[in-house]
Amino acid sequence: MGRLSAMDESLSATRTATLTFTVGDGDTAVALGSGSLPVLGTPRLLAWCEAATCAALEESMAPGRTSVGTRISLEHLAASPVGAALTVTATQVYADGRLVRFSVSARHADGKLVGSGEVTRVVVDAERFLARLGPV
User: How many domains, in total, are found in the chain?
Assistant: First the structure.
């Protein structure tokens, strides 16, 4: 997988980030095509969990580095209506070279657990990653 640069060595330290989101009409299952009810859609919950993992890594990235998601396990446990505020937290639980795994959770303002799981990301050199894609 490659070695970390000196500037990426801080990835071995535990990282955490907490983001707050409010469910809007465009975040619902019906708007996202993942159901027929006007409640938070699982695809949006998943995107918010990934956003928290990116935020947790952001400050420890060397210039030109980014991360890509490679594995996600998520349980969507409770419904959230339009207007509900959610706090999404990502905490690094494992790091091995460029691979970083996070525990993620989303909670309503009253503390009720909405979702939980794990997100795995791999740190990559952005230019090299995109160069390998070639023409489409």
Answer: 1
CATH code of the domain containing 82: 3.10.129.10
Residue 100: count other Cβ atoms within 10 Å of its Cβ.
24
Q: Is residue 64 situated within a structural domain?
A: yes
Q: Look at the block and give the residue holding tokens 């525990």.
A: 103
Is beta strand 99-108 parallel, antiparallel or unpaired with respect to 113-125?
antiparallel
Task: Residue 86: give the domain boundaries.
Answer: 6-131
* Token couple for 9: 């060595």
pLDDT at 3: 42
Q: Is the dihedral of CA 78, 81, 82, 84 positive or negative?
A: negative
**Is 136 within a domain?**
no
pLDDT digits (tens, 9 = 90+) for 3-59: 444 434 455 567 999 999 999 999 999 999 999 999 999 999 999 999 999 999 998
| pTM for the model | 0.89
**Of 61, 126, 42, 54, nearest in space to 92 by CA:** 54
DSSP string for residues in 6-39? GGGGGGGS--EEEEEEE--GGGBHHHHTS-SSSB
